[in-house]
Design goal:
Blueprint lengths: L1 H14 L2 H5 L24 E6 L3 H10 L1 H7 L2 E6 L3 H10 L6 E4 L2 H9 L12 H6 L3 H7 E4 L2 E4 L2 E7 L2 E5 H6 L8 H13 L17 H14 L2 H9 L7 H14 L8 H7 L19 E2 L18 E5 L10 E11 L4 H10 L6 H6 L17 H11 L3 E4 L1 H4 L2 H17 L4 H10 L4
Parallel strand pairs: 1-2, 1-3, 10-11
Antiparallel strand pairs: 3-10, 4-5, 6-10, 7-8, 7-9
């Protein structure tokens, strides 16, 4: 009964946007006003096309998550997923045949189309008061991008992931009498305690084949958010703040105070670059543990030894902030939905995507975290997803994975490569930072 009531409330939110389609100075594309007692008369039987990277199980979960909306409104959301989405979306948009809506896993890719004026400004077509009430400001900031005629609201956020998480072997951690740190000072004290007990605090590995180095970029992004302002972080990912700057060097020092300190990381500094990121946390579950802490996103549990139970065998805590004036930032990844064609039914679908109801079924089935403020923690069927969602909801700010926002030659190229070279000791910090800066497209 509660689920039905919630769906009705979510629907009322969408219904309240109908006047947007029927006048008020907006381009209605020939839409008729609702007739009779059916608020969806104008959109029944309409098809909204959508493209994105969801395939296989994710595609099934996405389609299942929108079924109630489709049944209620009579709109069909025709979703087409592709593993080559990044390439195919460019062909479609530049060829004049864009989908009505596209799901971008990388905001930087969406920004390419925004700069060319190919994306609908959601400020002009949605009830933005409702949208603004359902996201913390950081999500709105990350959806705002620069178009040819100024800033626009380029997209709204759907499914997201949290990265600012520190995992640990709960059974052994509790048995050792260790306490979960809530401040950076407490984390430093925990590290000292582990070392004084003759053990190693951290398990870290950045080897990942052709993508070796990406976990190092995540760590640096975390430290940028904890030692610098959001403005500096945003300037950095846009290339306006150089890697070879005092701000970035300060963040690197915060990172290497852990990575390079004697006895702090299992295998030492040189072992970091040669240890697979997926293998690195496994040492926490040896008997006795060879390391106690591992920072990684919520996907990492798939690399843990089999048959471990969340909240029993393992748990995580939020990586604390360093400077109180920067609050409790959370590094995230996720999917941002953008609109390419403006029709009443497309507006209605986009307004729906700005509500927790749009991902409720996915959240309940596992594998999705909602950024919406109207989502409920009781939707989460497993304790890990629920706690990740709570961590994101409690954040004072969120920012997207920085390397995913940078041009490919930097974010998935020089940044990975040069951080690896610096960590392994084959390059100095000066050499690595200058090489990354030189990789930025001119």
């Amino acid at each position: 009964m509660k689920k039905v009531l919630f769906l009705l409330l979510a629907v009322l939110m969408v219904i309240s946007t109908v006047p947007l389609f029927a006048g008020g100075g907006q381009d209605t594309k020939g839409a008729a006003a609702p007739s009779g007692d059916d608020p969806y008369a104008q959109v029944r039987g309409k098809v909204v096309t959508m493209a994105g990277p969801f395939v296989d199980a994710d595609a099934v979960k996405f389609k299942e998550s929108v079924k109630d909306f489709e049944k209620l409104t009579g709109i069909t959301i025709q979703y087409e997923g592709s593993k080559e989405f990044e390439a195919s979306i460019a062909i479609r948009v530049d060829g004049g045949n864009p989908p009505d809506i596209a799901d971008f896993p990388q905001p930087g890719l969406l920004e390419n189309f925004v700069k060319k004026g190919q994306v609908v400004d959601l400020n002009k077509v949605l009830d933005m008061e409702k949208v603004k009430k359902n996201y913390i400001q950081s999500w709105l900031d990350m959806g705002t991008m620069e178009g040819p005629n100024g800033k626009i609201m380029a997209g709204i956020w759907g499914r997201v992931n949290g990265k600012s998480l520190v995992w640990y072997n709960k059974k052994e951690f509790d048995a050792a009498g260790y306490k979960v740190p809530t401040t950076w000072k407490e984390l430093e004290e925990l590290q000292k305690m582990i070392i004084s007990d003759g053990d190693t605090p951290w398990a870290i590995g950045i080897e990942s084949g052709a993508a070796t180095g990406w976990p190092a970029t995540d760590w640096l992004e975390e430290m940028m958010l904890r030692t610098n302002s959001l403005e500096d972080y945003d300037r950095w990912v846009k290339g306006e703040l150089k890697f070879d700057s005092p701000q970035v060097r300060k963040a690197i020092k915060a990172m290497t105070d852990i990575w390079f300190a004697d006895g702090m990381v299992y295998g030492g500094r040189k072992g970091i670059a040669t240890t697979s990121f997926g293998d690195s946390p496994k040492v926490m579950f040896e008997k006795p543990p060879k390391a106690w802490l591992h920072k990684q996103g919520n996907f990492v549990t798939s690399f843990f030894p089999e048959n471990l139970k969340a909240n029993v065998d393992y748990d995580f805590f939020y990586l604390p902030g360093i400077d109180p004036k920067y609050g409790k930032p959370v590094l995230v990844a996720g999917d941002i939905y953008a609109m390419f064609n403006d029709r009443p039914e497309v507006r209605m679908v986009m307004q729906y995507f700005a509500t927790g109801a749009s991902v409720e079924k996915w959240v309940r089935s596992g594998g999705a975290i909602s950024p919406h403020l109207d989502s409920k923690l009781e939707w989460y069927s497993n304790p890990v997803d629920r706690k990740v969602a709570e961590t994101i909801q409690n954040a004072t700010s969120v920012r997207f994975d920085g390397s995913d926002l940078m041009p490919g030659a930097v974010g998935a190229g020089a940044f990975w490569k040069e951080m690896t070279a610096y960590v392994s000791g084959s390059k100095s910090l000066d050499e690595a930072l200058k090489a990354i800066d030189a990789a930025w497209p001119r």
